[in-house]
Structure formats: structure tokens, C-alpha cells
Amino acid sequence: MEIQIFSYNVLAPDFGSDVYFKCLPEFLKFENRIKGICDKIEKAIQTNSIISLQEVDERIRDSLKELFNNGKYYVKWDGYFSNTNTIGPKPQGILIAIPMTMFDILDEVSITMRDEIIRPNTVSNTDLPHPMQEHINKARGRDLYQMAKKNENKLIGVLIKHKPTGFTFWAFNYHMPCIWWWLNVMVLHIEVVKKKMLEIAVNHPFIFCSDTNAKKGFPDRIFLENGTIDSSIYPYNGWMPHKNSQYCLKDSMVNAGTPTTRCCPTGSSSDLINGEFIANIDGIFSYGDIGVLKTHIDEYSISEPCPNSHEPSDHVPLYGTLILNL
User: What is the CATH number of domain 2-324?
Assistant: First the structure.
């Protein structure tokens, strides 16, 4: 039995600044981008896809309400602040939308992952690694655990039952913090997210959509996918990953050379094409009696900066086909 899934980082309006992008300024305006975002999501709704979105602030959420209502979708959204500023509308958010014509909703969760990251009392500042020297200023004096707990990133999940077959599974969504420049921090988030999903799912299979902010083939992405980790990115000497984070996630991602994000200019020189950071960091993963049969992305040219007239975000959406092992 096959089911369609759609995962997309839509680019939160507060992040659409010409500081980060080389596109024409008009393509960063919310009113110009939202139509393109809606068009892509409407295409996913037409195939009754499970929809997972990252960087959904309140404006984008509200702009999608009519689409989801008309498509008879159940929507789970939670917003959060992406730094220590907690005043005003939440500039970040995470969303899962489920077609109610195909699924019953059985349960749901929303968890602030920084609350799951616990610093051992026996670990002092002198035990903790620092980021690479060229990125030391980005830490702004924070140690490893302070940086890991800086953002309120939420893991959300919905337990759903497929109406035609009765097959039950969890759908999770998480936007990893954009701290790719300090892999030890990424490891802490990957550990608690994998551990938490397994605890919540209990004996149910699950799917996991994410902007991982971890490049395909890098040590943190390898830990996410297969549970093995190089000691060079341990959070401190003697650290060991929790046993419930060492399982394998099945990943039928588009090939490792296919870019899914086009943001500039934060990447290393090896990642820059025409001055843009281009890499594969988004994924659709699965665990248990469910698999990702295939994935694909929209075709686009790497010669034109994003966002643009046909790509309203700095990411391209992932379209996946799930197979239920009945």
C-alpha cells in the first residue's frame, strides 16, 4: 500500500533578508512568495499527501488555513522563538497536515527539544569542546550546552490510522537548529530527537520529516541515519549516545549530490555554486514496518538565485512515496 508525503521548508518571512540571499529583493517579499508556496502545497493536497512544513510562522500558517480546510486536512502546528527574544509573534513554527479522508487522528504531541537536553552535573566548561576557530564568534560566548538550549525548536507528531487498512503509525516533523558549524551541538539535538521519537512511538512505526541542517555524508547526518557516531564529535570525552538513539532510520533520499537547499552565503567554499550554498540537507526518513519507496524534487536550475519567480523558498520541496508493510 502506497501513500504520498510532502516535506518543505517554506522560509519564514523573518529570515527572508537580502543579507542572506542574492536574489532580486522583490522575490523576498512575503506577498510575492506566499502564492508560490500555496501553489506547491495545493499540488500536494491534490494527491492526498501527508504534508510536513518547516519555518511556518503565524502569517504563513494563517495563509494556508483555507487550503487545508478545503482539502479536509487536520493541521497540527506549533510556533516557537528562534533565539532568546520572546516578545511578539513567534517567527518560527512547525506543521503537519493530515488528509482526514484517508486517516483517523488518534493522538498528537509537541515537545520543546531543548528541555530534553540535560547537562550532566559532572561535566564542567573545561570538558566541553569549542566550535572551529573560524566560527567561534557565532557562539557569542556560549558553551556547548548553552548553545544547544538557545532555540526552542519543537518536535511535533501525530498518530494516525490509515482508514482503508487500519495501519497505524506516527508522523513526526522537526527542524534541526541551524548550527551546522558546531557538530557537537547538532549531535545533542539528534540524540534527543531520535530517543524521543522511539519513546513516543513505542511499538508503532513512524516517519520523520526534517530540515536536518546536516549535509548528506557528514558525521552528524550519519549519526541521524544509522546511529553510529565518530568520537571526534562527541559532546565531551566519555560521552556515549543513549541506546535509544542508536537505531537506523531508513532514508530513500534523492541522491546525495542533489541539492535541496540554496541559501547564501553561509556555506564553505566547496558548497558554493555561482555564489550560493547548495547542499542536500532535507530528508524523509522511516522506522519500522513502513518505508520510503522513492523521493523526488521539482526540477530547477542552479544558475538562478533563490527565491525566484518559480521557487518561493531557499529550499525545494521533497515529494515521497511511503510503502506500508501490511
Answer: 3.60.10.10
